[in-house]
Write a structure and sequence with these properties.
The complex is a heterotetramer. Chain C is α/β, with parallel strands linked by helices. Chain C has 13 helices and nine strands. Chain D is built from six helices and four strands. The longest helix of chain D is centred in the middle third of the chain and has 18 residues, at about 80-95. Classes of the chains: A alpha/beta, B alpha/beta, C alpha/beta, D alpha/beta.
């Protein structure tokens, strides 16, 4: 039972309730002790750092200061939301790299007699903990209902793999962590080339047309590879792709219907939890049809859509990738 | 207090010469004042004559020294001039001509290390006095020495059977001297054997390479050790003893006729990662390519069914001359050679490291070596240029230059050959498929003979050149017409806009990298390699094929990225240097050696582990250490380490250095 | 020659601990040979002769003088000059006279530090803060005591020395051999070795006489003898990580310490022709450290917390530097 | 001569790289202070701590030890021994009161003339701040100064 300092972030209570509920369900099964940092505050999401640097970093590192005070033997702060994870990681990284910034922030924190020594905490995303600490073998052993039959587009978004200060992810453009998790759950992860492309972030408020184009590309990519649903690790990505899917369809006269859910919801399903407790139904684009496919044989594609040339077994051999080379050894 | 009377009781008779070097020295150092100061201040040491002269290295300058030696019976000479690396030999020869042992002469640098690097005239003059005083204090303790004459063994070892190694071996063998070639792969030929055409002449690589390979294979003076690796090198210039591991081929080369029936009958097919660059297959028993030299196949133990499961033996059954011999063992062969030429070539940059180009993930992204095999008539597709599915002929092809080169994330240097290679591919694709060809480059480097003309020709053939570094290659279609294609995202710096160019096939013109085991190779042969792994030449401009270690030469892309003509030229150059050595018959080595005084040595063995050349030997019976003068390279580490002060060294003895320190600090003694 | 025809013998002790005197006594019956062959004219510890008696002698009248102890104050220097004038053969007897030995370690401190430590520190009850003065007037008259030099010097830095006998103290079997030699010289059966040479010691270093087995050295750590629970009886101590000065210390003592499981600390001084003992040990130990990584080498070197104590315990005063900067940079006390 | 303190630095170079770097600095006319005086040895492994102690004892204010970069030694690995000796020697010197800044080890390849010149300039500046070491010339150090303070009383010298 390893325990972590848990930073939930605001969206877990509002727009990403499904993420929170499914995380609670999954947490029990995997034996993760997530001790919430008491009196944590908003992390400034993607906007505040762009508006006013020192107050933004002070706001963020207040959470880190609280976490160090409350250290329950663990030095790791877990953030499920990509934006919170990146902001916490940025605060820790730049306070260390630019001592004068660190001093100013700590000066601000003194008002609440708090202090944060940069580098004293490890800041990691939930997916990183599941893959590297819990481990795929452990997750696979907990799967009761393998999700055979559905094709899932794994979508990581841009904040988790980049800038990746501590070099935790396998690649900065095409990381395979989420793919491996999905196949551990029995689902088929499509080879989704846009897995780390931008979802628009806060663009829907500033310039909707730009946001719609970015969202259309992701939906088109998922639809092209016949994904039944798209799985994400970040409340902001989920909201953009789900909430603005209808408007994007109106804007481009398309009719994509791709459910956008959190990877923890799928994990809950695979662990045999009741969909109600996993936040299913909260999404705007219904997952009802997609979920019904779990367990069915995959029908032969009717070929209506243009199939991308997949490498058939015949023809010239593909070069082996480093991951497979390890498997060979 | 070091007293200055030397072994023969009276003072030495010293001549000091301060050179003007035109104005190079005299411009910043008051040479007359220095000469005068030496005459008065250092007279007590035995300085009889102290001159300053315009050009000491000129014949007149040398005659000055010779005459003084004869007339004044000088026993020591100190010259304040340029650098020992330049004219030490000149002044030593002058001394020898005047029957004074050349090692009793000391050249003190007052140009490179004073006049050229200091501006204040007074300081420069003061420092010149001090540095010459250091030289005089030192030279008093010099001992007459004779250079060691070491016979040169006429045989030569060439490591690496690529085009550079082949050229060197042929030059030496044709000159009548024995050559050993050691090649790691089953056949010589190196990377060039994999190519289809060569730029700029579009010669077929095999057509111009195989004749040289055949003459190597049949040359009476060349012993070919393929499927072998050097395990140990001992000795020094003129007398290297090299231990080579000949891996078992499991084919008896007396009986094998090279008919290749065994390769047909062998049931086990494996991807050929080396020769076919992972694009083609070979059998468990194989020769890399039909024109292999030597023609005898080898059995790859990891994949041979007999060696893995103990069954099959198809090759043995069908071999007409039963040349197959599963009982063969690896063999250690020792050869004695006088010189060694390293020509072990390069590794291709691993394009998988550039994840945004998608090699290894996107099927139709190929590397340059893969395309060489694709376009080669003896290749997996018999020369048909097709996509990864082995069927479809591409309509549009994108060729990306500078993959992994001129890139801070990977290799800073330019790999010299990727531009011309990219142009060659463009021509071949155009000629064979009529496809539209895009070349993405940042600078078109076509520097050598007939290279730029080739570039003009490829331009006129209608190749579309986009000047810009490719940002990403993706199969995520975004605009209509992009489905099912590879989209090349690039900023066209000439058109000044971002472009998304859909193509069917991408060829990555990857750069060259040092061999992954370059550092071990350098350690094995006792030479040094740069941080990233290219072997270091004696002088980048004036001595590119020699190394700092006497008797070891380098040729080809082991020294740095280069094209075939330069590799061939370097192969021949290295051979010429070796021939020069062999002709001399012997070589004079600087007599800088260490030796142990058996009386003083207590057998503490502190020094025993300090010599990388194994020159330090411990005699258990006499409890005393001894240094083998033949192996000692004169680094002096053991001299400095000996706790009992029992090891002394010629040329750089303790007394000489300590005296030099006194001399250097003389001026500040008052 | 003395009245009874026997050559004169003298022994004096300057800045030393007296151990050399006891070592002479330690030659057991050999002491009698001295008595039979020599007339002891001046030996402060053994007999009651005064400086004036020595001053009254003719120059060069003493055949053999064994002078132990370094020159620390003006009296030592005075007597050294006196005995040089009066003696034919002046032997720097023992490590103090030859290279400064333990008293020489005081060269690391300045006079003011030494006086503070002796007179003002907790080790002395000195309520009215008396400071040493070279002369003081008392009712009876003016009293003088010798002045301290800023640093201790071995004998040969003050007067010319004929022979050196290393060792702290010199081993008794070596003293006996020297005495026999001098006796033979008197009876013309042998002649003196060249002036300035070292007598009563070997040509090589302690390892030559050490019975322990030695192999190629690869040192991973330095430890103290007491940190090793079981010392290998016949393996070289250095190879067990114990910083032994044997390799650089002159032979002659018969490797007494290494034989009994303790590292050699170098009391027989440097080998023949060596300028700086410490430098030889620094390069010997450092060269065989098995690491090329600076931080790891530093960690291994932590095993030698006191380099000067380890490398210059006996010969700081005779090393190239001879002192620490503290010794002469602020020797204010001499000025007042 | 300006009265500002001009330190004397003794520099030990290795024949294969740092000496050639000094030559290269010359041919490239790269300027650096004249306070340093170089000694050429075959390898940094030849540097005996005795040389460094001798330099300080004979009047040097600083000593700069240079050699090939680790892994690039002409004799393969002898510069590592120079590194080991330097680290132990430095500890001994600091204990003898010689400031750490007076002795330094710098790696310079044959191509790094400019870098060597910078290192020399940095070393000279650093020793300037430390001021003169002026280790005593022991000959005569004890003669006059002491005697003048103490007159030898009659009865001792009679």
């Amino acid at each position: 039972m390893t325990s972590y300092l848990f930073y939930p972030g605001c969206s877990m209570e509002t727009s990403a309730k499904a993420y929170y509920e499914s995380l609670i369900a999954v947490k029990k099964t995997l034996g993760l002790d997530l001790v919430e940092i008491d009196d944590w505050n908003c992390c400034g999401a993607t906007e505040y750092l762009g508006i006013n640097l020192i107050p933004a970093y002070a706001l963020i590192s207040r959470n880190l200061a609280l976490a160090t005070q409350q250290a329950n033997g663990s030095r790791t702060v877990v953030a499920p939301c990509s934006a919170c994870y990146l902001n916490l990681a940025k605060a820790d990284h730049y306070m260390l790299e630019r001592p004068e910034l660190g001093e100013k922030v700590n000066l601000a924190l003194q008002a609440g007699n708090l202090f944060y020594k940069p580098g004293s905490l490890e800041i990691r995303h939930l997916l990183d903990i599941l893959i590297n600490d819990v481990g795929l073998e452990e997750i696979k052993s907990k799967v009761k209902k393998p999700l055979r039959g559905i094709k899932v587009a794994p979508y990581l978004g841009c904040m988790v793999p980049r800038p990746d200060y501590k070099k935790r992810w396998s690649d900065h453009e095409h990381p395979d962590e989420l793919d491996r998790l999905l196949s551990a759950l029995g689902a088929e992860a499509i080879d989704f080339p846009l897995k780390t492309h931008c979802c628009g972030g806060h663009m829907p408020q500033i310039s909707p047309s730009t946001a719609f184009e970015l969202i259309r590309r992701l939906l088109h990519g998922a639809d092209l590879y016949e994904a039944d649903l798209l799985v994400t690790v970040c409340p902001m990505c989920q909201m953009n792709l789900d909430a603005f899917q209808a408007e994007t369809n109106r804007y481009f006269h398309t009719n994509y219907k791709i459910p956008i859910i959190f990877f923890t919801q799928l994990m809950g399903l695979a662990f045999g939890e009741d969909p109600k407790e996993l936040g299913f139904g909260r999404e705007l684009v219904s997952t009802e049809f997609a979920l019904s496919r779990i367990g069915l044989e995959i029908p032969e594609p009717d070929g209506s859509k243009v199939q991308p040339k997949r490498a058939k077994k015949t023809g010239l051999p593909m070069p082996t990738m480093p991951a497979d080379e390890e498997a060979h050894k | 207090m070091t007293n200055f009377t030397t072994s023969n009781g009276n003072k030495e008779r010293i001549g000091v010469y301060v050179c003007h070097c035109g104005s190079n020295i005299a411009g910043t150092v008051n040479v007359e004042e220095v000469a005068a100061w030496v005459r008065t201040e250092l007279e007590g040491l035995g300085v009889l004559i102290s001159r300053d002269y315009k050009f000491m290295c000129s014949s007149l300058g040398q005659e000055l020294i010779q005459n003084d030696i004869k007339e004044l019976g000088l026993t020591r000479i100190v010259v304040g001039a340029c650098s020992p690396h330049l004219h030490e030999q000149t002044f030593r020869t002058a001394c020898r001509r005047a029957e004074l042992n050349p090692y009793l002469c000391e050249l003190v640098s007052i140009r490179e290390q004073i006049s050229w690097v200091h501006t204040d005239k007074d300081q420069a003059t003061e420092k010149s006095k001090a540095v010459i005083a250091g030289g005089v204090y030192r030279v008093v303790h010099h001992q007459p020495l004779e250079p060691l004459h070491v016979p040169i063994h006429p045989a030569t070892l060439v490591v690496g059977g690529g085009i550079a190694g082949i050229q060197a071996a042929l030059e030496l063998a044709d000159a009548g001297y024995p050559v050993y070639i050691v090649e790691r792969e089953p056949s010589i030929g190196g990377h060039m054997a994999q190519f289809d055409k060569t730029f700029p002449t579009l010669d077929c690589a095999a057509c111009i390479l195989t004749p040289k390979m055949v003459s190597v294979g049949s040359h009476p003076n060349i012993t070919l050790l393929t499927w072998s690796e050097v395990r140990q090198v001992e000795g020094y210039v003129g007398n290297f003893t090299v231990t080579i591991q000949k891996k078992a081929r499991y084919v008896n080369d007396e009986f094998c006729t090279g008919c290749a029936i065994c390769q047909e009958k062998c049931p086990k097919k494996v991807i050929d990662e080396i020769y076919e660059a992972g694009l083609g297959y070979r059998k468990a028993i194989y020769t890399p390519f039909p024109q292999a030299v030597p023609k005898y196949p080898v059995i790859d133990r990891q994949n041979c069914i007999y060696f893995q499961k103990g069954t099959c033996k198809a090759c043995e059954k069908f071999c007409p001359t039963n040349a197959i011999d599963f009982t063969q063992e690896d063999e250690l062969v020792t050869v004695n050679v006088g010189n060694i030429i390293l020509a072990t070539g390069y590794d291709l940059f691993d394009a998988r490291r550039v994840s945004q180009y998608g090699y290894g993930r996107l099927a139709n992204v190929f590397t340059s070596l893969e395309f060489e095999r694709l376009s080669n008539a003896a290749g997996p597709t018999n020369g048909d240029i097709v996509l990864r599915d082995g069927v479809t002929v591409p309509k549009t092809v994108g060729i990306v230059h500078c993959v992994g080169s001129r890139d801070r994330n990977f290799n800073n240097y330019c790999s010299v050959i990727c531009c011309m290679q990219g142009l060659k591919f463009a021509h071949i694709v155009h000629e064979r498929t009529g496809a539209t060809v895009y070349n993405f480059y940042i600078d078109m480097r076509t520097a050598y003979k007939a290279y730029d003309e080739f570039y003009q020709r490829v331009l006129e053939e209608g190749t579309l050149f986009v000047r810009g570094k490719v940002a990403e290659i993706t199969d995520a279609a975004r605009l209509p017409g992009e489905e099912g294609k590879l989209i090349i995202q690039v900023e066209d710096t000439l058109a000044g806009k971002q472009r998304r160019i859909p193509v069917d096939m991408v060829i990555l013109s990857s750069g060259l990298e040092p061999r992954s085991d370059a550092k071990d190779l350098a350690k094995l042969f006792g030479i040094s390699c740069s941080a990233d792994g290219w072997l270091i030449e004696k002088h980048p401009k004036l001595d590119p094929v020699a190394t700092m270690t006497e008797g070891i030469f380098i040729a080809g892309s082991v020294q740095g990225p280069k094209d075939i003509p330069t590799s061939v030229a370097q192969g021949a150059a290295a051979a010429a240097r070796v021939l020069g050595r062999i002709q001399q018959g012997e070589i004079a080595i600087e007599p800088i050696l260490a030796s142990v005084d058996a009386e003083k040595c207590s057998g503490c063995r502190i020094c025993n582990g300090l010599c990388p050349y194994n020159a330090i030997v411990f005699h258990d019976d006499r409890n005393v250490t001894e240094i083998n003068p033949a192996l000692c390279q004169g680094c002096g580490t053991c001299i400095a380490a000996c706790p009992a002060g029992a090891i002394s060294g010629t040329g750089f003895s303790d007394t000489q250095i300590l005296a030099q320190i006194d001399g250097l600090l003389l001026l500040n003694a008052e | 020659m003395s009245i009874n025809g026997k050559p004169k013998f003298a022994m004096y002790w300057a800045a030393s601990c007296g151990g050399c005197e006891i070592a002479v006594l330690n030659t057991h019956e050999k002491i009698l040979d001295i008595d039979t062959n020599f007339e002891v004219v001046f030996w402060p510890i053994a007999m009651d002769a005064k400086y004036n008696d020595v001053k009254a002698m003719e120059d060069k009248s003493i055949l053999l003088t064994l002078f132990n102890g370094g020159i620390r104050n003006t009296e030592n220097e005075e007597v050294a000059n006196l005995l040089r004038r009066k003696s034919q053969i002046l032997v720097a007897f023992g490590s103090c006279a030859s290279e400064g030995c333990i008293p020489g370690l005081a060269n690391l401190s300045s006079l003011s530090d030494i006086f503070n430590a002796s007179y003002q520190s907790a080790s002395t009850v000195n309520p009215d803060n008396v400071a040493p003065k070279t002369s003081v007037s008392v009712p009876e008259g003016e009293i003088h005591i010798p002045a301290m030099f800023p640093a201790l010097r071995p004998l040969d830095q003050v007067v010319s020395v004929d022979y050196y006998m290393p060792g702290c103290p010199p081993e008794s079997h070596q003293i006996s051999r020297v005495i026999d030699l001098v006796i033979k010289v008197i009876s013309k059966e042998a002649d003196l070795p060249p002036i300035g040479s070292v007598i009563g010691a070997g040509e090589s270093t302690v390892c030559d006489e050490c019975p322990r087995h030695r192999d190629v050295k690869t040192i991973k750590q330095f430890v103290r003898v007491q940190d090793i629970d079981k010392i290998n009886a016949d393996l070289c101590l250095l190879e067990q990580g114990i910083p032994c000065n044997g390799p650089a210390s002159r032979s002659g003592c018969g490797a007494l310490c290494p034989k009994s499981g303790a590292q050699c600390i170098g009391c027989y001084g440097p080998a023949e022709g060596v300028l700086d003992f410490g430098a030889r040990m620094i390069t010997a130990l450092a060269s065989v450290i098995e690491s090329n990584e600076p931080s790891e080498i530093e960690r291994i070197l932590e095993g030698i917390p006191d380099p000067v104590g380890q490398f210059y315990r006996f010969n700081l005063a005779n090393s190239l530097l001879r002192t620490g900067t503290a010794a002469w940079r602020n020797n204010a006390s001499l000025k007042e | 001569m300006s009265d500002a303190f001009e330190p004397i630095i003794i520099g030990f170079t290795c024949n294969w790289c740092s000496y050639r770097a000094a030559d290269l600095a010359g041919t490239a006319r790269v300027k650096y202070p004249a306070n340093i005086r170089l000694i050429r040895l075959m390898c940094s492994g030849r540097i005996d701590p005795t040389f460094v102690l001798k330099a300080f004892a004979s009047g040097a204010d600083g000593v700069l030890i240079t050699g090939c970069h680790p892994g690039e030694c002409h004799y393969i690995e002898q510069n590592y021994k120079a590194l080991r000796r330097y680290l132990l020697l430095k500890r001994s010197l600091t204990q003898l009161g010689i400031e750490a800044g007076r002795v330094k080890l710098v790696w310079a390849s044959a191509a790094e003339g400019v870098r060597l010149a910078d290192e020399i300039t940095k070393m000279v500046e650093q020793v300037k701040t430390l001021g003169p070491l002026n280790w005593p010339k022991w000959e005569g150090f004890f003669d006059d100064e002491i005697h003048s303070l103490v007159e030898i009383p009659e009865e001792v010298s009679a």
